[in-house]
Amino acid sequence: MNKHRVGAGRAARSACVLAALLGLGACSSVGFGIGIPVGPVSLGVGVGSGGVSAGVGTGVGPVGVGVGVNQRGQVIGGAGVGASVPVGGGPVRAGVGVGTGTVLYDPNRPSTAPVVPQAGARPPASAADQIAP
Predict the structure, then answer these.
(1) What does residue 37 show for φ and ψ, rounded to 5 degrees?
(2) Which helix (H) or strand (E) holds 123?
(3) What is the pLDDT of residues 54-100, one digit of tens each?
(4) How many domains does the chain have?
(5) Is residue 127 part of a domain?
């Protein structure tokens, strides 16, 4: 197997994961990030118009997916595509990518869980019960 082809896949995967992580919180975010391949995943850190984010992602070829956390504590998931080119003669590559995503968890969003009545509590009176005889 061609080691440059393997490196290209990792770099493209890193580029697209970072693009996805940086472009997630605000759909029109622009930024810069770096990804480090660690086995089958890439660990990334980025800074963009949406703030600082860190995450993990993986991909196949130019397509990648990732999950990250931004400085506001939001957990964001996304997907993207990217490409890279070799820089110099070593294993270093430069890449670009585009991605999209969504907020999976926001600690500042009020909970939408149903309210469970406490044991022994009386239900509120209905309109019919409030009419005097």
Answers:
(1) -65, 130
(2) none
(3) 999 988 888 989 999 999 999 989 899 988 888 888 777 788 888 88
(4) 1
(5) no
CB 70 within 8 A of CB 76: yes
Cβ neighbours for 56, distance < 8 A, ≥ 6 positions apart: 41, 42, 43, 44, 66, 67, 68
Distance (Å, rounded) from C-alpha 88 to C-alpha 72? 38
Instruction: State the first-to-last Cα distance of the chain, in angstroms, to the nearest integer.
Output: 89
Full residue range of the structural domain in which residue 22 is found:
3-108
User: Does 32 score more than 70 pLDDT?
Assistant: yes
Label the pairing between strands 41-48 and 31-38. antiparallel
Flag whether 124 is in a domain.
no
102 - beta bridge partners? 77
On whether residue 118 sits in a domain, the answer given is: no
In a domain, 69, yes or no: yes
